[in-house]
Design a protein that fits this description.
heterodimer, A: about 575 residues, alpha+beta, 19 helices, 10 strands, globular, B: about 160 residues, mainly alpha, 6 helices, elongated
C-alpha cells in the first residue's frame, strides 16, 4: 500500500478517527489559549473550561469504548490494508478537513456557553467568535466539496450528491454554520440578534456532534445493529444529550437575561440577514427531519419508510430559490433602514443579465424544462449581483481609475469576502444546473474497435490490457477519444483487484474539457469479448467544486480582515501585529 | 505466469459481481419508455442496499426490480401503476419519496410549518419593535472601573 494511505488508514477506522477528532479538538483549544490574548480573562477561562469539558467527554469515550491502542495478539502476518475505495487522495484528506470543520464549531459553542455563563454578550463577542466560525466553515466547505468529488469519480455513476445520511450529516452543520456567520455579522455591526446568534452557535456544534454520532454509531445502517452493540452508540448519545441538552438548558435559563440592542426596520441589511437565517434554518431542518425521520418512525412504530433523493430534491431546492433571489439584495441594503426599490434599481443590470441568460437558454434548448433556464438565469443574476456590489463599493465606471483602485484597496476584506463567496455559490449552482440538465449518458456493450459517440466525441474501444499497481492489479480498457476525427486523448477506465482484501473497485476515467468532463466507467466483461461501458458527458460539472473553492476563498478573504485579526477596531495606521492571527 | 493465471481467475470471479447499475441488455429499444424507466428507477429503493436507488445499485435484487419496472412499462402500465404494483409487492419501504400519510405528516409538514411560524413571528416582532424606544446598554461595574483607571492614567500622564 502506498505510504500516504498507511498514514490515512489511521482515520479509516472508528478508533483512529476518534483519535483524529480529539487531536483536532486539542489543537483548536490550544489555539484559543495561545491566540486569545486580547480576550477578557474571565471569558477566556470560561471558553477554555467548556472546551475541556468537551475534550474530557471524548477522551472518556475513547478510553472506555474505542481504545485505539489495543494490542493484537498474535500480531497478524500482514494487515488488511485500507478499504480499496478509500485508497484515494481525495478521501485521504477529506476526513481531516471535515473534522476541522466539525470541531471548529466547538469553539463557537464554547464561546456561546461562556457568554451565557457570564450573562453578558456584545459586539466584541461576535468579533472574537467570527474568525473561528469562518475557519471552521471554510474547512467544512472544502471538506464537503472534496467528499462530493470523491463520490463523483470513485463510486462510478457520476452523481455528485446522493442525499445519503452520511452526506446530510455534514451538510447540516454547514448550513447552520453559514447561518451563524451571517447572524454574527448583525451582532458585530449592530449589536442585535444576540439570542438568536447564541442559539445558532449551539445548534451548529450540536449538529456537528449529531453528524459524528450518525456516522460513528452505526445507527444509520439499521436501528437494529445499533441496538445489538449499543456501548458506543449509547455513550455518544450520552455525550449528545449532555452537551446539546445542557447547552439548550443554559440557553433557556440565561438567554432572557441578555439585553437586546440595535433596532432595525424589516427592510434593512439586518432584515435581509434575518431572512437568510430563516430560510437556512428551515433548509437545515428539512435535511434533519428527512435524515432522522425513518429512524424515529421505525423505532417508535416499527414501520419502515425510505427518505431519499427525490424527497430532498423536492423539499430542499424550493427553500434555496428565495434565498438566492434575495442574495444580491443583502449586501446592497443599508443597515437599520433600507430601500428595496433603490437597491432593485441598482440591481437592474443584474436582473437584465439574468433575464438574458434565461432567454438565451430557452432559445438554445427550445421549450423544454422550465427549471433549467430559470436556474441558469438565477445563477447569472447572483453572479452579476455580487459584481454589482463590488462595482458600487469601488465606484468603478463612476470615478477615475486611481480613485477606484484606492477605494478597492481601502475596502474591508470582509466586503470582498462576501462578494466572492456569493459569487462562488452562484458558480456552484450553475454547475449543478448544467451538469444535471444537459448531461448525456450512453450505456453500451462494445467489442474491440467498436465506437460509441456522444456530445460530439467518438470513443473507440482499442482493447484490454493488464497492469499492476503498488498493491493491486488492474484490468484496463483503453479508449481513443476523437473530436471531429482528430485524436484528442485516451480514456482508461479500469477494474482494480486488491489482493489484501480480495475485493475490487471500479476506477472511472475522466477527461477534462474546459470545465466539462467526459466520464467513463467500466461494467461487466461478457463472454463474447465485449465490455459494457457507461459514458457520460457532464457539461460544466467542474463548476460545482470550483464554486466551493471560490466560496472558501471568500471565507479566507473575510478571515484576513484586520478587524477580525486584531479583534477590535483600532486606528488603521498602526501596523497590525501578526501574532493575533487566528490559527488555521 | 502463475500470478497472471491467478489474476485472470480473480478477475473472472469478480467481474460479474462488480459491475455497475444499468447494463446494456436491460436498456429498452424505445427511448421514451427507457427514459420513463430510468426516472422511475430513481424513485425506487434498492431494499438490500443502504440508501441507493435501484438505478444506482448493482445488487442482483435491484437488477430484478429494474427488469420488472421495464416489463410493466412495456405492457403499457402508467408510471403510477408501476409504483402501485411495486408498493403492493414490497411495501412503502420501496419508495424513496414517502407518500403523504398520517405517519409522514411531520416529515412533510414540519419545515413549511416552521417557515410559516418564523415569518409570522418576524411580522409580530417588527410591529412590536416600533413601539420600543432604543436605549444604550448601561456600563458594567467592571467597565466603569476600567474607564476610571484609564482616565486616571490619562491625568497622571499630563
Amino acid at each position: 500500500m502506498p505510504l500516504i494511505y498507511k498514514f490515512t488508514s489511521v482515520w479509516g477506522n472508528h478508533e483512529g478517527s476518534m483519535l483524529l477528532w480529539v487531536l483536532i479538538l486539542a489543537l483548536f483549544g490550544a489555539s484559543v489559549a495561545a491566540f486569545g490574548r486580547n480576550l477578557p480573562a474571565t471569558l477566556k477561562a470560561n471558553v477554555l473550561a467548556v472546551q475541556s469539558w468537551i475534550a474530557c467527554s471524548f477522551y472518556l469515550f475513547i478510553l472506555m469504548t474505542s481504545n485505539p491502542f489495543t494490542r493484537l495478539s498474535p500480531a497478524p502476518f500482514e494487515g488488511r490494508d485500507l478499504n480499496p475505495i478509500l485508497q484515494d487522495i481525495g478521501l485521504a484528506v477529506h476526513p481531516p478537513l471535515l473534522y476541522l470543520g466539525y470541531v471548529g464549531f466547538s469553539i463557537a459553542f464554547s464561546f456561546a456557553m461562556a457568554a451565557l455563563i457570564e450573562g453578558r454578550i456584545d459586539a466584541a463577542w461576535a468579533r472574537w467568535v467570527r474568525p473561528w466560525t469562518l475557519a471552521a466553515w471554510m474547512f467544512l466547505t472544502v471538506g464537503i466539496a472534496m467528499g462530493s468529488y470523491w463520490a463523483y469519480y470513485e463510486l462510478g455513476w457520476g452523481g455528485f450528491w446522493f442525499w445519503d445520511p452520511v452526506e446530510n450529516a455534514s451538510l447540516m452543520p454547514w448550513i447552520a454554520g453559514t447561518a451563524l456567520l451571517h447572524s454574527a455579522v448583525v451582532m458585530e455591526k449592530r449589536n442585535a440578534l444576540k439570542v438568536w446568534t447564541l442559539l445558532l452557535a449551539i445548534l451548529a456544534f450540536s449538529l456537528s456532534l449529531i453528524g459524528t454520532f450518525l456516522v460513528r454509531s452505526g445507527v444509520l445502517t439499521s436501528v437494529h445493529t445499533f441496538a445489538s452493540d449499543p456501548t458506543r452508540g449509547v455513550f455518544i448519545l450520552g455525550i449528545l444529550v449532555f452537551f446539546i441538552g445542557g447547552g439548550l438548558t443554559l440557553f433557556a435559563w440565561r438567554a432572557p437575561l441578555l439585553k437586546q440592542g440595535g433596532l432595525f426596520a424589516p427592510v434593512s441589511r439586518e432584515g435581509a440577514l434575518v431572512f437568510n437565517n430563516l430560510f437556512l434554518t428551515t433548509a437545515c431542518l428539512t435535511v434533519f427531519v428527512g435524515t432522522l425521520y425513518p429512524l424515529a418512525l421505525e423505532s417508535i412504530t416499527g414501520e419502515k419508510i425510505s427518505v431519499g433523493a427525490p424527497f430532498f430534491n423536492l423539499t430542499f431546492a424550493p427553500l434555496f430559490i428565495p434565498l438566492l433571489c434575495a442574495m444580491p439584495f443583502g449586501p446592497l441594503l443599508a443597515w437599520k433602514r433600507g430601500d428595496v426599490l433603490g437597491v432593485a434599481q441598482r440591481l437592474m443590470a443584474a436582473f437584465g443579465i439574468g433575464i438574458v441568460a434565461i432567454a438565451v437558454t430557452f432559445a438554445a434548448m427550445g421549450m423544454g424544462s422550465v427549471l433549467a433556464p430559470f436556474g441558469i438565469g438565477l445563477a447569472f443574476y447572483v453572479m452579476a449581483g455580487a459584481l454589482t456590489d463590488l462595482v458600487e463599493r469601488t465606484g468603478l465606471f463612476r470615478m477615475p481609475l486611481a480613485m477606484v483602485s484606492r477605494r478597492a484597496a481601502g475596502m474591508p476584506r470582509s466586503a470582498w469576502g462576501t462578494a466572492v463567496a456569493h459569487f462562488g455559490m452562484a458558480v456552484t449552482l450553475l454547475g449543478i444546473v448544467c451538469a444535471s440538465t444537459w448531461g448525456v449518458e450512453r450505456i453500451v456493450a462494445l467489442k474491440p474497435s467498436q465506437a460509441v459517440s456522444l456530445a460530439g466525441y467518438d470513443l473507440t474501444f482499442d482493447g484490454m490490457i493488464q497492469r499492476s499497481g503498488s498493491n493491486y492489479r488492474e484490468l484496463v480498457a483503453t479508449f481513443t477519444v476523437r473530436q471531429d476525427g482528430n485524436v484528442i486523448g485516451q480514456l482508461e477506465p479500469s477494474k482494480r483487484s486488491f489482493a489484501a482484501r480480495s475485493s475490487s473497485t471500479t476506477e472511472a476515467a475522466l477527461m477534462t474539457r474546459g470545465v466539462s468532463q467526459l466520464y467513463m466507467s467500466l461494467g461487466d466483461v461478457n463472454d463474447d469479448g465485449s465490455i459494457a461501458v457507461r459514458v457520460y458527458f457532464k457539461p460544466l460539472v467542474l463548476l460545482i467544486w470550483l464554486g466551493s473553492l471560490v466560496m472558501m476563498l471568500g471565507g479566507a478573504l473575510s478571515l484576513s480582515d484586520r478587524r477580525l485579526r486584531i479583534g477590535a477596531p483600532k486606528p488603521a495606521r498602526k501596523p497590525a501585529r501578526p501574532a493575533m492571527q487566528p490559527a488555521e | 505466469m502463475r500470478r497472471l493465471a491467478l489474476f485472470a481467475l480473480l478477475a473472472a470471479l469478480l467481474m460479474p459481481g462488480a459491475g455497475y447499475a444499468v447494463t446494456p441488455d436491460e436498456v429498452l429499444k424505445d427511448p421514451a419508455l427507457e427514459a420513463r424507466a430510468r426516472h422511475l428507477s430513481q424513485e425506487l429503493r434498492c431494499m438490500v442496499c443502504q440508501n441507493q436507488s435501484i438505478d444506482d445499485s448493482d445488487a442482483p435484487l435491484a437488477k430484478d426490480l429494474r427488469l420488472l419496472v421495464r416489463e410493466r412499462l412495456v405492457k403499457g402500465d402508467s408510471d403510477g401503476q408501476v409504483l402501485d404494483f411495486l408498493v403492493a409487492r414490497y411495501g412503502e419501504f420501496v419508495l424513496l419519496k414517502p407518500p403523504f400519510q398520517p405517519q409522514t405528516l411531520l416529515l412533510w409538514g414540519l419545515s413549511p410549518l416552521v417557515l410559516l411560524i418564523g415569518i409570522g413571528a418576524l411580522f409580530v416582532m417588527a410591529r412590536r419593535r416600533k413601539t420600543v424606544a432604543l436605549e444604550p446598554a448601561a456600563l458594567s461595574s467592571e467597565e466603569k472601573r476600567k474607564i476610571a483607571a484609564l482616565a486616571e492614567r490619562e491625568t497622571a500622564d499630563h
